[in-house]
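Hi W., the zinc ion complex you wanted:
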Amino acid sequence: MQQSPGHPSHDDDWAQTLRAKGLRATAQRMAVLEFLHHHPHTDAEAIFQAVRCSLPTISLQAVHLIVLDLSGKGLIRRISLPDSASARYETRIEDNHHHIQCIRCGRIEDVDCIVGHAPCLEPHDNHGMRIIEASIVFRGVCQSCDAEFEEKDEHL
Ligand SMILES: [Zn+2]
Ligand SMILES: [Zn+2]
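Structure:
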């Protein structure tokens, strides 16, 4: 798992991080941050299923609102990928990194940025649109999917 040194990983640090952004350090927000920190690239539904074990009163709607708040304040990053129906979130926000996704099983991994800053953020022609982000998504086939495919191939 990709973890940057010095990134908060327990409740006190999350509480500080939240307060620094003017958000109340609620148990629900801290649970979402802590879960995402250890399970990057998860969607609201998966976060909900995981945190409801320790927070039985939390609702899926509450998780949607929390990830909206947290990404709005820049505490987490929202990722939308072509092969995922729902938006994914992660706490790795301090760098510009990209994602690689397996087109068969949907597995997502981080890919470090090659140039170190966001690419092509200022196109020559924005067609009148306000640019929010420019993202790069590498699409591929992971080793286990490749192996599975080769196995099937042998039996044809
Ligand atoms: Zn795969
Ligand atoms: Zn990532």
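The radius of gyration is 18 Å.

W.
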